[in-house]
């Protein structure tokens, strides 16, 4: 089998590939082109007929399919066994996964067994060179695994010079999902589960699975009114709901606001929450720590409402309203109602 390519583990459920996997294929295509290697994808599960047609438009050169009823729903042992054995054969130089419940379970198992290391929750991935300051050895075309570190006080660039694959997980929404070529065609490699697993991998069976769908669709909201710790209280958050209601948007929150109990975790935006790209993002009482900015910096228009003129978020905002939100938001509501009739 061909070696040294870039591979993306694709999550598959309910007839479709997860958005985060398609986002990683988009990024993977750009990285693979930069490296001059093939972009590969691996999908494990049941009822995988024509799954490759969802993947090829993203520029995938090769799809590894492992179709077996025992591989769905996801369980840790068989999925990690397949990846570990396959990776020993094809020796990919890079493996990308979503930082999902599955990716957080699978990634560390695979990297630990292959002694490769893994960087979790990357916000950016690039290719570059590195010189070891101790030995002076130069390494070409490494994967720069970029993420906030030390509580978000710095952005760390992590490299893995010696071990392969270089592994990273990325949250949903961090990378942009884009079709590479609707007519792109790669090859399909069908693998048998029994060739890559052990019988004891299947001792755990999922008898029933209950998944509650989130009622909050913050990820796809075109307008988001978001509050931080500076909002001051759960009661004050009601103002944000009123504004969002008038604008036809959703309410978001920073981690500090969620930790303070002002809003539920499903509304959290940032490195430890959801990444969003709305047309309009109104940030109320948000200072703008790097983890929060990582989750909303691609918004088309950003308005910051803050009584601190030096709040870091003001540097990336298109418009800054300096004042107390208790004064500003009622005026916005009143003005919008008056001018939208």
Would you mind describing this structure in some detail?
This protein has helices at 19-35, 52-55, 76-90, 101-114, 193-196, 234-247, 255-259, 290-294, 325-339, and strands at 6-10, 12-13, 16-17, 39-45, 62-67, 94-98, 118-122, 124-131, 138-149, 154-158, 166-170, 187-191, 223-227, 250-253, 280-284, 301-306, 319-322. The protein has 341 residues and is α/β, with parallel strands linked by helices. The strands form 4 sheets. A 7-stranded parallel β-sheet has the order 7-11-6-1-4-5-12, with helices on both faces. Strands 14-13-15-16-17 form a 5-stranded parallel β-sheet. It has a 3-stranded antiparallel β-sheet with strand order 8-9-10. Helix 3 crosses helix 4 and helix 6 runs parallel beside helix 9 (325-339). The longest helix has 17 residues, at 19-35.
Extended strand count: 17
Beta-strand proportion: 25-35%
Q: What is the typical, i.e. mean, pLDDT?
A: 90
Question: What form results from the Cα inertia axes?
Answer: globular
Q: How many separate helices?
A: 9
Strands of the widest sheet, in order across it, are 7-11-6-1-4-5-12
Low-confidence stretches: none
Helix content: 25-40%
Q: Mind summarizing the main beta sheet?
A: 7 strands, parallel
Rg on CA atoms, Å = 22 Å
Distance between the termini: 65 Å
Q: Give me the secondary-structure category.
A: alpha/beta
**H and E order:** EEEHEHEHEHEEEEEEHEHEHEHEEH
């Amino acid at each position: 089998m061909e070696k040294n390519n870039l591979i993306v583990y694709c999550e598959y459920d309910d007839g479709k590939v997860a958005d985060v996997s398609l986002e990683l294929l988009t990024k993977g295509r750009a990285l693979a082109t930069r490296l001059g290697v093939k972009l590969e994808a691996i999908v494990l599960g049941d009822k995988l007929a024509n799954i490759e047609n969802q993947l090829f438009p993203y520029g995938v050169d090769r799809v590894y399919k492992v179709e077996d009823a025992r591989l769905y729903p996801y369980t840790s042992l068989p999925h990690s066994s397949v990846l570990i054995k396959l990776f020993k054969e094809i020796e990919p130089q890079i493996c990308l996964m979503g930082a999902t419940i599955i990716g957080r379970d699978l990634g560390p198992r695979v990297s630990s067994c292959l002694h490769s290391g893994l960087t979790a929750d990357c916000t950016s991935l690039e290719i570059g060179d590195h010189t070891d300051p101790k030995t002076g050895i130069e390494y070409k075309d490494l994967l720069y695994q970029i993420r906030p570190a030390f509580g978000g006080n710095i952005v760390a660039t992590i490299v893995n010079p010696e071990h392969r694959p270089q592994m990273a997980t990325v949250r949903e929404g961090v990378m942009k999902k884009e079709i590479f070529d609707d007519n792109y065609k790669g090859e399909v490699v069908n693998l048998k589960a029994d060739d890559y697993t052990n019988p004891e991998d299947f001792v755990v069976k999922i008898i029933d699975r209950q998944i509650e769908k989130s009622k909050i669709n913050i990820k796809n909201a075109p307008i988001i009114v978001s509050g931080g710790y500076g909002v001051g209280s759960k009661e004050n958050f009601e103002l944000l709901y009123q504004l969002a209601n008038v604008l036809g948007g959703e309410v978001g929150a920073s981690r500090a606001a969620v930790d303070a109990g002002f809003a539920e975790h499903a509304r959290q935006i940032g490195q430890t929450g959801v990444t969003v790209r709305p047309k309009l993002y109104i940030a109320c009482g948000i200072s703008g720590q790097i983890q929060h900015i990582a989750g909303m910096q691609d918004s088309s228009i950003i308005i910051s409402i803050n009584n601190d003129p030096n709040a870091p978020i003001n540097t990336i905002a298109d418009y800054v309203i300096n004042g107390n939100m208790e004064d500003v938001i009622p005026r916005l509501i009143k003005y919008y109602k008056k001018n939208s009739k």
